[in-house]
Write a structure and sequence with these properties.
This protein has 308 residues and is of the alpha+beta class. Helices cover 18% and strands 18% of the residues. The chain has a single domain, classed as paralog of FGE (formylglycine-generating enzyme) (Alpha-Beta Complex). Strand 1 and strand 2 form a beta hairpin.
C-alpha cells in the first residue's frame, strides 16, 4: 500500500512540474471535465488570412489577404458545442434564456417565441450542435466553463478560427476548391435539402442531411477538427470590420470596429455552398430591432482555450 501511495505521489509531483505545453502538446486532445468539450491542441504557425482577388467567389470583406502568425499553441473544440454540453451549463448555472428563435419557412427569416435551443423547429439530440444561441449566450457559457474548470475558455478569435479551419491549406475549402466535392466533409445546402430550400443554389452532391447533423458525422480537416465548414455557423470573438485593413497580424482578437455586430464563420446546413469557404465571414447584429437577442436555428459555436 505504501508503495502504491509513493507511485501516485511521484506521478502527481512529476505532472505538476510539467509546463502547460508539455501537458498538452500540439496534436493532443483533452477534456477538462465529463461534460466539457473535447479540445484539440493546435501548433503555432502562420497562414494567409482572407481570400485572394483571384478567387471568383471572393467577397470585399475577405481582403486584403494578409499573413497572420499564431505565436503559440492553443486549443479549440474538436466539435461544435453540443446541445448536451450546453444543457449541462444551463442546469449547473441556472442560466435563463428567453425563448424565441429565428427560423425560415419562406424567403425571409421569421421570429417565433415557440422555438428555442431545445426545439429549434427540427429534431435534434444531445449529440447535435446547440443552435438558437446568441453571441451573449456563448459568452455566458465560456465564462461558466472557465469558472468550473479553472481554465481560460473563450470563443476563438476570427484569425484562430480561420487558421484552424484551413489546417495548412490555401484552397478556398479545406478539401479543395470545388463546392460539389464537399458532401463528405461538410453539411451545407445540397441535393439532400434542395426540396426544402426552394430557389436556393445547392451543391451537386448528397450529404444525407436536411438540417443539422450530429457532430463528427463528416470527415475532419487535417487538424482533426470536424464541421469547421457547414453544419452550424459559429460565433467568434471579434468585432466586425468591413475589411481586414488594420487587422491584428498575431492572431489576437480584433476589439476595434463595430462591436455591436459580432462575427459568424463557417456557414451552415442552411447555406448556399459558396458561403462554405474558409475565408467567408459576416457580421450579425447581436440584438434585433425589438432589442431581443439574435438567435437563429442554424447559429451555434465552438470554444477555444488558452494553453497556460
Amino acid at each position: 500500500m505504501k508503495v502504491g501511495l509513493f507511485i501516485v505521489a511521484a506521478f502527481f509531483s512529476s505532472a505538476s512540474s510539467l509546463s502547460a505545453e508539455e501537458l498538452h502538446p500540439p496534436g493532443s486532445e483533452f477534456q477538462d471535465c465529463e461534460n466539457c468539450p473535447v479540445m484539440s491542441v493546435l501548433p503555432a504557425g502562420r497562414f494567409y488570412m482572407g481570400s485572394p482577388t483571384t478567387d471568383p467567389q471572393n467577397g470585399f470583406d475577405e481582403g486584403p489577404q494578409h499573413e497572420v502568425r499564431i505565436a503559440s499553441s492553443f486549443a479549440i473544440g474538436k466539435f461544435e458545442v453540443t446541445r448536451g454540453e450546453f444543457a449541462a451549463f444551463v442546469q449547473a448555472s441556472g442560466y435563463s434564456m428567453e425563448e424565441g428563435c429565428h427560423h425560415r419557412t419562406g424567403p425571409q427569416p421569421e421570429y417565433s417565441d415557440v422555438f428555442h435551443w431545445l426545439n429549434p423547429s427540427y429534431e435534434q439530440t444531445d449529440h447535435h450542435p446547440v443552435v438558437c444561441v446568441s453571441w451573449n449566450d456563448t459568452q455566458a457559457y465560456v465564462a461558466w466553463l472557465s469558472r468550473a474548470t479553472g481554465q481560460s475558455y473563450r470563443l476563438p478569435s476570427e484569425a484562430e478560427w480561420e487558421y484552424a479551419t484551413r489546417a495548412g491549406t490555401s484552397t478556398s475549402r479545406y478539401w479543395g476548391s470545388s463546392e460539389d466535392d464537399g458532401c463528405a466533409f461538410a453539411n451545407g445546402a445540397d441535393l439532400s435539402s434542395e426540396a426544402d430550400l426552394p430557389g436556393w443554389t445547392v451543391a451537386q452532391c448528397h450529404d444525407g442531411y436536411l438540417h443539422s447533423a450530429e457532430v463528427g458525422s463528416f470527415k475532419p480537416n487535417a487538424f482533426g477538427l470536424h464541421d469547421m465548414l457547414g453544419n452550424v455557423a459559429e460565433w467568434v470573438e471579434d468585432c466586425w470590420n468591413e475589411t481586414f485593413e488594420g487587422a491584428p497580424a498575431d492572431g489576437s482578437v480584433w476589439r476595434e470596429g463595430d462591436c455591436t455586430r459580432p462575427i459568424l464563420r463557417g456557414a451552415s446546413w442552411h447555406d448556399d455552398p459558396r458561403f462554405l469557404r474558409s475565408a467567408n465571414r459576416y457580421g450579425f447584429d447581436a440584438l434585433d430591432w425589438d432589442n431581443k437577442e439574435i438567435r437563429y436555428y442554424n447559429f451555434g459555436f465552438r470554444v477555444a482555450r488558452t494553453i497556460q
